[in-house]
Write a structure and sequence with these properties.
Strand content of chain A: under 5%
Strand content of chain B: under 5%
Oligomer: heterodimer
Structural class of chain B: mainly alpha
Largest sheet of chain A: none
Number of strands of chain A: 0
Number of strands of chain B: 0
Distance between the termini of chain B: 30 Å
Number of helices of chain A: 22
Distance between the termini of chain A: 45 Å
Chain lengths: 426, 164
Protein backbone atom coordinates (compact mmCIF):
# COMPACT_ATOMS: atom_id res chain seq x y z
CA UNK A 1 0.00 0.00 0.00
CA UNK A 2 2.76 2.44 0.97
CA UNK A 3 4.63 1.60 -2.21
CA UNK A 4 1.44 2.22 -4.20
CA UNK A 5 1.23 5.66 -2.56
CA UNK A 6 4.87 6.25 -3.43
CA UNK A 7 4.19 5.42 -7.08
CA UNK A 8 1.15 7.71 -7.03
CA UNK A 9 3.25 10.53 -5.55
CA UNK A 10 5.85 10.07 -8.29
CA UNK A 11 3.20 10.23 -11.01
CA UNK A 12 1.65 13.36 -9.45
CA UNK A 13 5.06 15.04 -9.18
CA UNK A 14 5.78 14.27 -12.82
CA UNK A 15 2.51 15.82 -13.91
CA UNK A 16 3.25 18.87 -11.75
CA UNK A 17 6.14 19.51 -14.06
CA UNK A 18 8.89 18.52 -11.63
CA UNK A 19 11.91 17.16 -13.53
CA UNK A 20 11.51 13.40 -13.84
CA UNK A 21 14.62 12.60 -11.79
CA UNK A 22 13.49 14.82 -8.93
CA UNK A 23 9.93 13.55 -9.22
CA UNK A 24 11.27 10.06 -8.55
CA UNK A 25 13.80 11.05 -5.89
CA UNK A 26 11.71 13.39 -3.75
CA UNK A 27 8.85 10.99 -2.91
CA UNK A 28 11.42 8.20 -2.47
CA UNK A 29 13.25 10.29 0.12
CA UNK A 30 10.00 11.08 1.92
CA UNK A 31 9.20 7.38 1.91
CA UNK A 32 12.61 6.62 3.40
CA UNK A 33 12.13 9.24 6.12
CA UNK A 34 8.73 7.83 7.06
CA UNK A 35 9.66 4.17 6.92
CA UNK A 36 12.35 2.30 8.80
CA UNK A 37 13.26 -0.13 6.06
CA UNK A 38 16.42 1.66 4.97
CA UNK A 39 18.44 4.83 5.52
CA UNK A 40 18.79 8.07 3.60
CA UNK A 41 22.52 7.57 2.94
CA UNK A 42 21.65 4.22 1.42
CA UNK A 43 19.26 5.93 -0.96
CA UNK A 44 21.82 8.57 -1.94
CA UNK A 45 24.33 5.77 -2.34
CA UNK A 46 21.93 3.96 -4.65
CA UNK A 47 21.43 7.12 -6.70
CA UNK A 48 25.17 7.57 -7.15
CA UNK A 49 25.63 3.83 -7.62
CA UNK A 50 23.08 3.83 -10.42
CA UNK A 51 25.30 6.21 -12.37
CA UNK A 52 28.63 4.80 -11.24
CA UNK A 53 28.70 1.96 -13.77
CA UNK A 54 31.23 1.30 -16.50
CA UNK A 55 28.59 -0.40 -18.66
CA UNK A 56 26.34 2.65 -18.51
CA UNK A 57 29.23 4.86 -19.59
CA UNK A 58 28.37 3.67 -23.08
CA UNK A 59 25.36 6.01 -22.95
CA UNK A 60 27.22 9.35 -22.87
CA UNK A 61 29.67 8.01 -25.44
CA UNK A 62 26.92 6.89 -27.84
CA UNK A 63 25.26 10.27 -27.37
CA UNK A 64 28.54 11.99 -28.23
CA UNK A 65 28.97 9.85 -31.33
CA UNK A 66 25.45 10.65 -32.54
CA UNK A 67 25.95 14.36 -31.95
CA UNK A 68 29.30 14.36 -33.75
CA UNK A 69 27.64 12.71 -36.75
CA UNK A 70 24.89 15.32 -36.68
CA UNK A 71 27.35 18.19 -36.21
CA UNK A 72 29.44 17.08 -39.17
CA UNK A 73 26.27 16.96 -41.35
CA UNK A 74 27.05 13.34 -42.13
CA UNK A 75 23.43 12.44 -41.38
CA UNK A 76 22.36 14.58 -44.34
CA UNK A 77 24.78 12.62 -46.53
CA UNK A 78 23.12 9.36 -45.49
CA UNK A 79 19.72 10.74 -46.54
CA UNK A 80 20.99 12.03 -49.88
CA UNK A 81 22.73 8.75 -50.62
CA UNK A 82 19.64 6.62 -49.90
CA UNK A 83 17.49 9.07 -51.90
CA UNK A 84 19.88 8.77 -54.86
CA UNK A 85 19.87 4.99 -54.75
CA UNK A 86 16.06 4.79 -54.56
CA UNK A 87 15.14 7.77 -56.72
CA UNK A 88 13.45 5.70 -59.47
CA UNK A 89 11.05 3.92 -57.10
CA UNK A 90 7.53 5.45 -56.88
CA UNK A 91 6.98 6.83 -53.42
CA UNK A 92 10.73 6.46 -52.84
CA UNK A 93 11.03 9.25 -50.32
CA UNK A 94 8.85 7.28 -47.91
CA UNK A 95 11.18 4.29 -48.19
CA UNK A 96 14.19 6.63 -48.13
CA UNK A 97 12.99 7.98 -44.82
CA UNK A 98 12.86 4.48 -43.35
CA UNK A 99 16.15 3.30 -44.89
CA UNK A 100 17.95 6.41 -43.65
CA UNK A 101 16.71 5.72 -40.14
CA UNK A 102 17.91 2.12 -40.39
CA UNK A 103 21.40 3.23 -41.49
CA UNK A 104 21.54 5.95 -38.84
CA UNK A 105 20.29 3.43 -36.25
CA UNK A 106 23.54 1.55 -36.77
CA UNK A 107 25.44 4.61 -35.57
CA UNK A 108 23.14 6.12 -32.97
CA UNK A 109 21.16 4.49 -30.21
CA UNK A 110 18.56 7.14 -29.58
CA UNK A 111 15.24 7.78 -31.26
CA UNK A 112 15.28 11.47 -30.45
CA UNK A 113 18.76 11.85 -31.97
CA UNK A 114 17.31 10.41 -35.17
CA UNK A 115 14.23 12.66 -35.07
CA UNK A 116 16.25 15.76 -34.21
CA UNK A 117 19.17 15.00 -36.53
CA UNK A 118 17.38 13.65 -39.59
CA UNK A 119 13.86 14.96 -38.96
CA UNK A 120 14.31 18.35 -40.58
CA UNK A 121 15.88 17.10 -43.80
CA UNK A 122 13.49 14.13 -44.10
CA UNK A 123 10.31 16.15 -43.55
CA UNK A 124 11.47 19.05 -45.72
CA UNK A 125 12.30 16.73 -48.64
CA UNK A 126 9.02 14.82 -48.36
CA UNK A 127 6.95 18.00 -48.15
CA UNK A 128 8.78 19.41 -51.18
CA UNK A 129 7.83 16.31 -53.16
CA UNK A 130 4.13 16.47 -52.45
CA UNK A 131 3.71 14.26 -49.41
CA UNK A 132 1.17 15.44 -46.87
CA UNK A 133 2.37 17.13 -43.71
CA UNK A 134 0.88 14.48 -41.40
CA UNK A 135 2.31 11.61 -43.45
CA UNK A 136 5.82 13.11 -43.55
CA UNK A 137 5.90 13.87 -39.85
CA UNK A 138 4.28 10.59 -38.81
CA UNK A 139 6.65 8.46 -40.85
CA UNK A 140 9.70 10.38 -39.64
CA UNK A 141 8.63 9.92 -36.03
CA UNK A 142 7.75 6.25 -36.44
CA UNK A 143 10.95 5.40 -38.30
CA UNK A 144 13.07 7.12 -35.65
CA UNK A 145 12.01 4.46 -33.12
CA UNK A 146 14.05 1.95 -35.12
CA UNK A 147 17.13 3.68 -33.64
CA UNK A 148 16.84 2.23 -30.14
CA UNK A 149 16.13 -1.28 -31.46
CA UNK A 150 18.98 -1.74 -33.94
CA UNK A 151 22.36 -1.69 -32.17
CA UNK A 152 23.89 0.40 -30.74
CA UNK A 153 20.97 1.11 -28.48
CA UNK A 154 20.90 3.22 -25.31
CA UNK A 155 17.86 1.42 -23.85
CA UNK A 156 19.58 -1.91 -24.54
CA UNK A 157 22.64 -0.79 -22.56
CA UNK A 158 20.44 0.30 -19.66
CA UNK A 159 18.32 -2.86 -19.77
CA UNK A 160 21.39 -5.11 -19.92
CA UNK A 161 22.84 -3.30 -16.92
CA UNK A 162 19.56 -3.42 -14.94
CA UNK A 163 18.70 -7.03 -15.75
CA UNK A 164 22.27 -8.30 -15.55
CA UNK A 165 22.54 -9.72 -19.08
CA UNK A 166 25.14 -9.26 -21.81
CA UNK A 167 24.98 -6.01 -23.76
CA UNK A 168 26.40 -7.81 -26.79
CA UNK A 169 23.65 -10.45 -26.87
CA UNK A 170 20.96 -7.80 -26.48
CA UNK A 171 22.52 -5.84 -29.35
CA UNK A 172 22.50 -8.98 -31.51
CA UNK A 173 18.89 -9.69 -30.58
CA UNK A 174 17.82 -6.24 -31.72
CA UNK A 175 19.03 -6.50 -35.32
CA UNK A 176 16.19 -8.56 -36.84
CA UNK A 177 13.35 -6.83 -34.93
CA UNK A 178 14.76 -3.48 -36.09
CA UNK A 179 14.77 -4.61 -39.71
CA UNK A 180 11.31 -6.09 -39.20
CA UNK A 181 10.06 -2.70 -38.05
CA UNK A 182 11.54 -1.14 -41.17
CA UNK A 183 9.70 -3.67 -43.38
CA UNK A 184 6.44 -3.16 -41.48
CA UNK A 185 6.70 0.62 -41.88
CA UNK A 186 7.58 0.19 -45.56
CA UNK A 187 4.41 -1.89 -46.07
CA UNK A 188 2.39 0.87 -44.40
CA UNK A 189 4.06 3.44 -46.66
CA UNK A 190 3.23 1.26 -49.68
CA UNK A 191 -0.44 1.15 -48.70
CA UNK A 192 -0.72 4.83 -47.78
CA UNK A 193 1.42 6.09 -50.68
CA UNK A 194 -0.85 4.34 -53.19
CA UNK A 195 -3.68 6.56 -52.03
CA UNK A 196 -1.49 9.62 -52.51
CA UNK A 197 -0.31 8.41 -55.93
CA UNK A 198 3.26 9.75 -55.64
CA UNK A 199 5.39 9.78 -58.76
CA UNK A 200 9.10 9.81 -59.38
CA UNK A 201 8.85 13.18 -61.19
CA UNK A 202 9.70 15.29 -58.20
CA UNK A 203 12.53 13.02 -57.22
CA UNK A 204 14.71 14.08 -60.14
CA UNK A 205 16.61 16.33 -57.76
CA UNK A 206 18.06 13.17 -56.22
CA UNK A 207 19.17 11.76 -59.55
CA UNK A 208 22.83 10.86 -59.58
CA UNK A 209 25.30 8.04 -59.97
CA UNK A 210 24.33 5.60 -57.24
CA UNK A 211 27.63 3.74 -57.44
CA UNK A 212 29.87 6.76 -57.10
CA UNK A 213 27.66 8.08 -54.29
CA UNK A 214 27.91 4.72 -52.56
CA UNK A 215 31.70 4.77 -52.75
CA UNK A 216 31.78 8.29 -51.38
CA UNK A 217 29.69 7.33 -48.39
CA UNK A 218 31.51 4.05 -47.72
CA UNK A 219 33.74 5.39 -44.89
CA UNK A 220 30.63 6.61 -43.11
CA UNK A 221 28.85 3.29 -43.60
CA UNK A 222 31.79 1.53 -41.96
CA UNK A 223 31.00 3.25 -38.64
CA UNK A 224 28.58 0.52 -37.50
CA UNK A 225 31.14 -2.09 -38.55
CA UNK A 226 33.78 -0.45 -36.35
CA UNK A 227 31.32 -0.07 -33.51
CA UNK A 228 29.58 -3.43 -33.56
CA UNK A 229 32.49 -5.44 -34.93
CA UNK A 230 34.46 -4.71 -31.77
CA UNK A 231 31.58 -5.81 -29.55
CA UNK A 232 30.45 -8.88 -31.50
CA UNK A 233 34.03 -9.92 -32.13
CA UNK A 234 34.71 -9.83 -28.41
CA UNK A 235 37.51 -7.25 -28.74
CA UNK A 236 35.83 -4.46 -26.79
CA UNK A 237 33.05 -3.90 -24.32
CA UNK A 238 30.14 -1.71 -25.50
CA UNK A 239 31.65 1.29 -23.67
CA UNK A 240 35.11 0.81 -25.14
CA UNK A 241 33.66 0.23 -28.57
CA UNK A 242 31.77 3.52 -28.35
CA UNK A 243 35.04 5.33 -27.53
CA UNK A 244 36.78 3.71 -30.50
CA UNK A 245 33.86 4.57 -32.79
CA UNK A 246 34.04 8.21 -31.64
CA UNK A 247 37.69 8.32 -32.71
CA UNK A 248 36.67 6.87 -36.08
CA UNK A 249 33.85 9.44 -36.50
CA UNK A 250 36.31 12.22 -35.59
CA UNK A 251 38.69 10.86 -38.23
CA UNK A 252 36.16 10.65 -41.08
CA UNK A 253 34.57 13.95 -40.05
CA UNK A 254 37.82 15.91 -40.00
CA UNK A 255 40.04 14.09 -42.51
CA UNK A 256 37.78 12.24 -44.98
CA UNK A 257 34.73 14.53 -45.33
CA UNK A 258 36.28 17.64 -43.72
CA UNK A 259 32.93 18.84 -42.42
CA UNK A 260 33.69 18.59 -38.72
CA UNK A 261 35.13 21.95 -37.73
CA UNK A 262 36.48 22.67 -34.22
CA UNK A 263 33.44 24.88 -33.51
CA UNK A 264 31.01 22.15 -34.52
CA UNK A 265 33.01 19.66 -32.49
CA UNK A 266 32.81 21.83 -29.38
CA UNK A 267 29.08 22.35 -29.87
CA UNK A 268 28.58 18.60 -30.17
CA UNK A 269 30.60 17.97 -26.99
CA UNK A 270 28.65 20.58 -25.01
CA UNK A 271 25.30 19.28 -26.25
CA UNK A 272 26.35 15.71 -25.49
CA UNK A 273 27.47 16.60 -21.97
CA UNK A 274 24.16 18.34 -21.33
CA UNK A 275 22.12 15.46 -22.71
CA UNK A 276 24.15 12.89 -20.79
CA UNK A 277 23.60 14.71 -17.51
CA UNK A 278 19.84 14.78 -18.14
CA UNK A 279 19.75 11.06 -18.92
CA UNK A 280 22.13 9.80 -16.27
CA UNK A 281 20.43 11.58 -13.37
CA UNK A 282 17.19 9.87 -14.32
CA UNK A 283 18.98 6.54 -14.30
CA UNK A 284 20.39 7.34 -10.84
CA UNK A 285 16.98 8.34 -9.48
CA UNK A 286 15.30 5.31 -11.01
CA UNK A 287 17.98 3.12 -9.51
CA UNK A 288 17.18 4.48 -6.04
CA UNK A 289 13.48 3.86 -6.60
CA UNK A 290 14.23 0.36 -7.84
CA UNK A 291 16.10 -0.22 -4.59
CA UNK A 292 12.97 0.65 -2.59
CA UNK A 293 10.91 -1.69 -4.75
CA UNK A 294 13.43 -4.47 -4.19
CA UNK A 295 13.37 -3.91 -0.43
CA UNK A 296 9.61 -4.36 -0.50
CA UNK A 297 9.91 -7.43 -2.72
CA UNK A 298 7.73 -5.80 -5.36
CA UNK A 299 9.47 -7.60 -8.28
CA UNK A 300 8.57 -10.98 -6.80
CA UNK A 301 5.01 -9.81 -6.15
CA UNK A 302 4.61 -8.59 -9.74
CA UNK A 303 5.76 -11.96 -11.06
CA UNK A 304 3.47 -13.74 -8.61
CA UNK A 305 0.38 -11.68 -9.47
CA UNK A 306 0.98 -11.92 -13.21
CA UNK A 307 1.43 -15.69 -13.18
CA UNK A 308 -1.49 -16.21 -10.77
CA UNK A 309 -3.90 -14.19 -12.91
CA UNK A 310 -2.70 -14.92 -16.43
CA UNK A 311 -0.68 -18.11 -16.03
CA UNK A 312 2.57 -18.53 -17.94
CA UNK A 313 1.19 -18.85 -21.46
CA UNK A 314 0.49 -16.44 -24.31
CA UNK A 315 -2.14 -14.61 -22.26
CA UNK A 316 0.52 -13.59 -19.73
CA UNK A 317 2.74 -12.33 -22.55
CA UNK A 318 -0.13 -10.25 -23.97
CA UNK A 319 -0.88 -8.89 -20.50
CA UNK A 320 2.79 -7.99 -20.11
CA UNK A 321 2.80 -6.19 -23.46
CA UNK A 322 -0.34 -4.21 -22.58
CA UNK A 323 1.15 -3.32 -19.20
CA UNK A 324 4.43 -2.17 -20.76
CA UNK A 325 2.63 -0.10 -23.40
CA UNK A 326 0.66 1.67 -20.66
CA UNK A 327 3.81 2.21 -18.55
CA UNK A 328 5.70 3.48 -21.59
CA UNK A 329 2.97 6.02 -22.24
CA UNK A 330 3.42 7.65 -18.85
CA UNK A 331 7.03 6.97 -17.86
CA UNK A 332 10.26 8.02 -19.51
CA UNK A 333 11.62 4.82 -21.17
CA UNK A 334 15.07 4.77 -19.56
CA UNK A 335 13.60 5.37 -16.09
CA UNK A 336 11.05 2.64 -16.76
CA UNK A 337 13.78 0.21 -17.77
CA UNK A 338 15.91 0.92 -14.68
CA UNK A 339 12.88 0.52 -12.42
CA UNK A 340 11.34 -2.47 -14.16
CA UNK A 341 14.52 -4.24 -15.31
CA UNK A 342 15.25 -6.06 -12.05
CA UNK A 343 11.53 -6.69 -11.56
CA UNK A 344 10.94 -8.14 -15.01
CA UNK A 345 14.19 -10.08 -15.29
CA UNK A 346 12.85 -13.14 -13.43
CA UNK A 347 9.69 -13.03 -15.54
CA UNK A 348 11.65 -14.00 -18.66
CA UNK A 349 12.38 -17.43 -17.19
CA UNK A 350 8.81 -17.85 -15.95
CA UNK A 351 7.44 -17.08 -19.42
CA UNK A 352 10.06 -19.36 -20.97
CA UNK A 353 11.61 -16.57 -23.05
CA UNK A 354 15.25 -15.99 -23.89
CA UNK A 355 16.53 -13.09 -21.72
CA UNK A 356 17.58 -11.16 -24.84
CA UNK A 357 14.21 -11.76 -26.53
CA UNK A 358 12.49 -10.55 -23.39
CA UNK A 359 14.75 -7.51 -23.25
CA UNK A 360 14.02 -6.53 -26.85
CA UNK A 361 10.29 -6.99 -26.21
CA UNK A 362 10.45 -4.68 -23.17
CA UNK A 363 12.42 -2.04 -25.09
CA UNK A 364 10.13 -2.24 -28.11
CA UNK A 365 7.00 -1.78 -26.00
CA UNK A 366 8.48 1.15 -24.10
CA UNK A 367 9.66 2.80 -27.32
CA UNK A 368 6.05 3.12 -28.47
CA UNK A 369 5.70 5.55 -25.57
CA UNK A 370 8.17 7.86 -27.31
CA UNK A 371 5.51 8.46 -29.95
CA UNK A 372 2.55 9.08 -27.67
CA UNK A 373 1.64 12.00 -25.40
CA UNK A 374 2.26 13.03 -22.63
CA UNK A 375 5.94 11.98 -22.49
CA UNK A 376 6.51 11.19 -26.16
CA UNK A 377 9.92 12.76 -26.59
CA UNK A 378 10.09 12.00 -30.31
CA UNK A 379 6.73 13.70 -30.69
CA UNK A 380 7.92 16.88 -28.97
CA UNK A 381 11.38 16.84 -30.52
CA UNK A 382 10.04 16.49 -34.06
CA UNK A 383 7.42 19.17 -33.49
CA UNK A 384 10.20 21.45 -32.24
CA UNK A 385 12.70 20.93 -35.07
CA UNK A 386 10.07 21.15 -37.81
CA UNK A 387 8.07 23.98 -36.27
CA UNK A 388 4.82 21.98 -36.43
CA UNK A 389 2.32 21.46 -33.65
CA UNK A 390 2.37 18.33 -31.49
CA UNK A 391 -1.21 17.57 -32.58
CA UNK A 392 -0.26 17.33 -36.27
CA UNK A 393 2.70 15.06 -35.53
CA UNK A 394 0.48 12.86 -33.36
CA UNK A 395 -2.18 12.59 -36.09
CA UNK A 396 0.56 11.60 -38.53
CA UNK A 397 1.90 8.90 -36.23
CA UNK A 398 -1.44 7.13 -35.71
CA UNK A 399 -1.50 5.20 -39.04
CA UNK A 400 1.98 3.79 -38.30
CA UNK A 401 1.26 2.53 -34.78
CA UNK A 402 -0.46 -0.71 -35.91
CA UNK A 403 2.62 -1.80 -37.87
CA UNK A 404 4.84 -1.25 -34.83
CA UNK A 405 2.40 -3.20 -32.65
CA UNK A 406 2.48 -6.08 -35.13
CA UNK A 407 6.27 -6.12 -34.74
CA UNK A 408 5.85 -6.24 -30.96
CA UNK A 409 3.64 -9.33 -31.29
CA UNK A 410 6.05 -11.01 -33.73
CA UNK A 411 8.99 -10.43 -31.36
CA UNK A 412 6.92 -11.82 -28.48
CA UNK A 413 5.68 -14.97 -30.19
CA UNK A 414 8.38 -15.80 -32.76
CA UNK A 415 11.60 -16.30 -30.73
CA UNK A 416 13.93 -16.78 -33.74
CA UNK A 417 13.44 -13.11 -34.66
CA UNK A 418 15.64 -12.30 -31.68
CA UNK A 419 17.61 -15.46 -31.04
CA UNK A 420 18.63 -16.24 -34.63
CA UNK A 421 21.57 -13.80 -34.78
CA UNK A 422 22.69 -14.76 -31.28
CA UNK A 423 22.87 -18.44 -32.19
CA UNK A 424 24.55 -17.54 -35.47
CA UNK A 425 27.30 -15.39 -33.95
CA UNK A 426 27.85 -17.34 -30.76
CA UNK B 1 27.58 29.66 -11.30
CA UNK B 2 25.99 28.33 -14.49
CA UNK B 3 29.20 28.68 -16.48
CA UNK B 4 31.23 27.06 -13.70
CA UNK B 5 28.80 24.16 -13.55
CA UNK B 6 28.86 23.88 -17.33
CA UNK B 7 32.63 23.88 -17.64
CA UNK B 8 33.15 21.36 -14.85
CA UNK B 9 30.53 19.08 -16.42
CA UNK B 10 31.98 19.37 -19.92
CA UNK B 11 35.56 18.83 -18.75
CA UNK B 12 34.51 15.83 -16.65
CA UNK B 13 32.53 14.51 -19.61
CA UNK B 14 35.54 14.82 -21.92
CA UNK B 15 37.71 13.28 -19.22
CA UNK B 16 35.38 10.30 -19.18
CA UNK B 17 35.86 9.77 -22.89
CA UNK B 18 39.64 10.12 -22.76
CA UNK B 19 39.86 7.86 -19.75
CA UNK B 20 37.91 5.08 -21.48
CA UNK B 21 40.02 5.59 -24.59
CA UNK B 22 43.23 5.41 -22.56
CA UNK B 23 42.09 2.06 -21.20
CA UNK B 24 41.41 0.70 -24.69
CA UNK B 25 44.68 2.02 -26.13
CA UNK B 26 46.76 0.71 -23.24
CA UNK B 27 45.20 -2.74 -23.50
CA UNK B 28 45.11 -3.18 -27.27
CA UNK B 29 48.26 -1.31 -28.33
CA UNK B 30 50.60 -1.53 -25.35
CA UNK B 31 49.33 -4.89 -24.17
CA UNK B 32 48.82 -3.90 -20.54
CA UNK B 33 45.54 -2.52 -19.23
CA UNK B 34 45.70 0.57 -17.03
CA UNK B 35 43.82 -0.34 -13.86
CA UNK B 36 42.75 3.18 -12.97
CA UNK B 37 41.10 4.20 -16.24
CA UNK B 38 37.80 2.42 -15.63
CA UNK B 39 37.49 3.81 -12.14
CA UNK B 40 38.47 7.32 -13.16
CA UNK B 41 35.93 7.36 -15.97
CA UNK B 42 33.17 6.23 -13.61
CA UNK B 43 34.05 8.87 -11.05
CA UNK B 44 34.23 11.59 -13.68
CA UNK B 45 30.78 10.84 -15.06
CA UNK B 46 29.32 10.97 -11.54
CA UNK B 47 30.93 14.38 -11.02
CA UNK B 48 29.75 15.53 -14.45
CA UNK B 49 26.18 14.49 -13.69
CA UNK B 50 25.81 16.01 -10.25
CA UNK B 51 27.73 19.20 -10.93
CA UNK B 52 26.13 19.58 -14.33
CA UNK B 53 22.59 19.41 -12.95
CA UNK B 54 22.50 23.13 -12.29
CA UNK B 55 23.64 23.92 -15.81
CA UNK B 56 21.13 21.50 -17.34
CA UNK B 57 18.27 22.96 -15.32
CA UNK B 58 19.26 26.51 -16.20
CA UNK B 59 19.36 25.56 -19.85
CA UNK B 60 15.91 23.96 -19.60
CA UNK B 61 17.33 20.71 -20.88
CA UNK B 62 16.19 18.50 -18.03
CA UNK B 63 13.58 15.90 -18.83
CA UNK B 64 10.12 16.77 -17.58
CA UNK B 65 6.54 16.23 -18.57
CA UNK B 66 5.06 19.37 -20.07
CA UNK B 67 1.32 19.44 -19.82
CA UNK B 68 -0.80 20.74 -22.70
CA UNK B 69 -1.13 24.50 -22.78
CA UNK B 70 -4.83 24.61 -22.00
CA UNK B 71 -4.32 22.89 -18.63
CA UNK B 72 -1.81 25.46 -17.38
CA UNK B 73 -3.21 28.49 -19.16
CA UNK B 74 -3.98 30.44 -16.03
CA UNK B 75 -1.02 32.08 -14.43
CA UNK B 76 -2.30 31.65 -10.90
CA UNK B 77 -2.81 27.91 -11.20
CA UNK B 78 0.56 27.71 -12.91
CA UNK B 79 2.16 29.36 -9.92
CA UNK B 80 0.51 26.92 -7.56
CA UNK B 81 1.86 24.03 -9.60
CA UNK B 82 5.32 25.54 -9.75
CA UNK B 83 5.43 26.20 -6.01
CA UNK B 84 4.49 22.59 -5.40
CA UNK B 85 7.47 21.63 -7.54
CA UNK B 86 9.75 24.04 -5.68
CA UNK B 87 8.64 22.70 -2.30
CA UNK B 88 9.44 19.18 -3.34
CA UNK B 89 12.82 20.32 -4.67
CA UNK B 90 13.66 22.05 -1.38
CA UNK B 91 12.78 18.97 0.65
CA UNK B 92 14.85 16.77 -1.65
CA UNK B 93 17.79 19.10 -1.51
CA UNK B 94 17.72 19.40 2.28
CA UNK B 95 17.49 15.67 2.77
CA UNK B 96 20.31 15.06 0.31
CA UNK B 97 22.58 17.55 2.05
CA UNK B 98 21.93 15.98 5.44
CA UNK B 99 22.45 12.55 3.97
CA UNK B 100 25.68 13.53 2.24
CA UNK B 101 27.21 15.10 5.34
CA UNK B 102 26.00 12.27 7.54
CA UNK B 103 27.53 9.76 5.19
CA UNK B 104 30.72 11.79 5.01
CA UNK B 105 31.12 11.85 8.77
CA UNK B 106 30.30 8.20 9.29
CA UNK B 107 32.21 6.58 6.50
CA UNK B 108 35.31 7.69 4.70
CA UNK B 109 35.51 4.97 2.14
CA UNK B 110 38.37 5.09 -0.27
CA UNK B 111 38.36 3.66 -3.72
CA UNK B 112 41.01 0.98 -4.25
CA UNK B 113 43.34 2.35 -6.88
CA UNK B 114 42.65 6.07 -7.15
CA UNK B 115 42.41 6.80 -3.45
CA UNK B 116 39.77 9.47 -3.89
CA UNK B 117 37.58 10.00 -0.83
CA UNK B 118 34.31 8.44 -1.93
CA UNK B 119 32.26 10.80 0.21
CA UNK B 120 33.20 13.62 -2.17
CA UNK B 121 30.67 12.09 -4.49
CA UNK B 122 27.99 12.59 -1.86
CA UNK B 123 28.99 16.24 -1.47
CA UNK B 124 28.65 16.46 -5.23
CA UNK B 125 25.11 15.14 -4.84
CA UNK B 126 24.35 17.88 -2.36
CA UNK B 127 25.92 20.55 -4.55
CA UNK B 128 23.96 19.42 -7.55
CA UNK B 129 20.69 19.29 -5.64
CA UNK B 130 21.29 22.74 -4.19
CA UNK B 131 21.97 24.12 -7.62
CA UNK B 132 18.84 22.52 -8.91
CA UNK B 133 16.71 23.85 -6.09
CA UNK B 134 18.10 27.36 -6.44
CA UNK B 135 17.15 27.20 -10.08
CA UNK B 136 13.55 26.31 -9.33
CA UNK B 137 13.29 28.95 -6.61
CA UNK B 138 14.53 31.73 -8.87
CA UNK B 139 12.27 30.67 -11.69
CA UNK B 140 9.26 30.46 -9.43
CA UNK B 141 9.93 34.01 -8.16
CA UNK B 142 10.19 35.23 -11.72
CA UNK B 143 7.16 33.22 -12.82
CA UNK B 144 9.19 31.44 -15.45
CA UNK B 145 8.81 27.82 -14.54
CA UNK B 146 8.50 25.29 -17.37
CA UNK B 147 4.79 25.11 -16.59
CA UNK B 148 4.35 28.68 -17.76
CA UNK B 149 6.78 28.47 -20.56
CA UNK B 150 5.07 25.79 -22.58
CA UNK B 151 4.64 27.63 -25.82
CA UNK B 152 7.37 25.37 -27.11
CA UNK B 153 7.07 22.04 -25.29
CA UNK B 154 10.41 20.82 -26.48
CA UNK B 155 12.14 23.60 -24.60
CA UNK B 156 12.08 21.55 -21.46
CA UNK B 157 12.69 18.31 -23.27
CA UNK B 158 16.10 17.03 -23.87
CA UNK B 159 17.18 17.26 -27.48
CA UNK B 160 18.57 13.81 -27.80
CA UNK B 161 16.28 12.30 -25.15
CA UNK B 162 18.47 9.92 -25.97
CA UNK B 163 16.75 7.29 -24.71
CA UNK B 164 16.41 6.46 -26.72
Amino acid sequence: MTVALLVLAIVICMFLGVPIALAILAPSLVYIVLSDTTSIPALVSQTVGGIDSFTLLAIPLFVLMGNLLNASTLTDRIFLWVATVLHRVPGALGYTNIATSVVFAGMSGAAVADAAGLGTVQVRAMRAHGYSREFSLGLTAASSTIGPIIPPSLPAVVYASAAGISVGSLFMAGIVPGLLMAVALAVTVFILARKMKPTTDGQASFKGNAWSESIKILPLLLTPVVLLGGIFGGFFTATESAAVAIVYVLFIGTVVYRTLTPTRMLTAVIESARTSVAIMIIIGAASAFGYILALNQIPQQIVQVLTDVFGTGPLAVVALIVGLLIIGTFLEPLAAIVILGPALGPLAAVLDMHPAQFGVLVILCLMVGLLTPPVGMVLFSLASVTGETVGIVWRGILPFLPSILVCVLIVAFVPPTTTFIISLLQ
Amino acid sequence: MKMLSAWIAVIAFLGTFFSVLAGVVSRTIFGSALAWTEELSRNLIVVAVFVGLYWVSQSDKHLAIVLPKRITRHRRSGQVWSWAGVSISVVTSAVCVVAAFDYGRGLRLRTPSLDIPLNLLFYAVALGMFGWTLHFLVRAFLGQTPMHDNSSPSKSMNKAGETE
